[in-house]
Specification:
The chain is an alpha/beta fold. The protein has helices at residues 8-19, 55-58, 83-90, 109-120, 148-158, 164-174, 177-181, 184-198, 202-211, 229-238, 258-274; strands at residues 22-24, 29-34, 41-44, 63-66, 102-107, 125-131, 215-221, 245-249.
Length: 295
Amino acid sequence: MAPGRLSTHDRTGILARLMALSSFAGGRLWGARFGGRPPRVLALHGWARSHADFGPVLEGFDAVALDLAGFGVAPEPPEPWSTQRYATEIAQVLSDMAPGPIVVLGHSFGARVGVHLAAANPDRVGSLVFTGAPLAPFPGAGQARPALVYRAGRALHRAHLLPSSRMEALRHRYGSDDYRRATPMMRGVLVKAVGETASSGYAPVLAAWARAGGRLALVWGDGDRVASLEGTLSSLAEARVPVADETVVAGAGHILGPPLHAALREALGRALLQERPGAGGEDAGRPVPADGRPS
């Protein structure tokens, strides 16, 4: 089989997963739909995850959980996208959502994308609920530089003086787990996202959205060693972005699990109480309980 081509088994598996999902934006986006009414929650997953992470969170809500490009069933982007470009692409799904402001739920990488989606569509995104969102570095982390050996190898490779096989070996030795596991295309995406976090550039993007009435909620595991709550809060405060709702979950880490599931359901319920569907809908003015169950 030629390199890069999918086997019959792989193609069959992808087809089966697609059949279990819903398409959006005229078939350009794929994800899971929850509830029977126009969705009021859009969920965006973390790095190397998929829509499936949100199943326990979104049960009982009218919601959509997408697969972002390069993850789940979604093909990789044609070039290393920034998180802003990801937001531009998924903005197409907004036409499939309920009218009026919606709630965007973002975990980790999905929260990075959610920042730009809200900033570019303040009339459509009324609330953000973020968990494990690496919007700023850990305090005192500074700008870490790659090891000297890696930087030297990279320079030699760019000058065509080091073979690709040796460069790949250096990547595996000195790169993060996420970097080592990623394809060359997705490594480019990851490098851009990590650079955005290191520059603390997300909070300033949210400032205008927050001044226009946007509501931000944070739900964090107290054992999260991937995304810094302290760094994120400091960056948001500096940009004058208020946090309307903050929950720290004991015994939870970075990856979504039962303790975070429950806290996110409650945070979504509170966020939805602040939003109202468009006039004329059958749900107009109907609040959503904090546990997410339809009344």
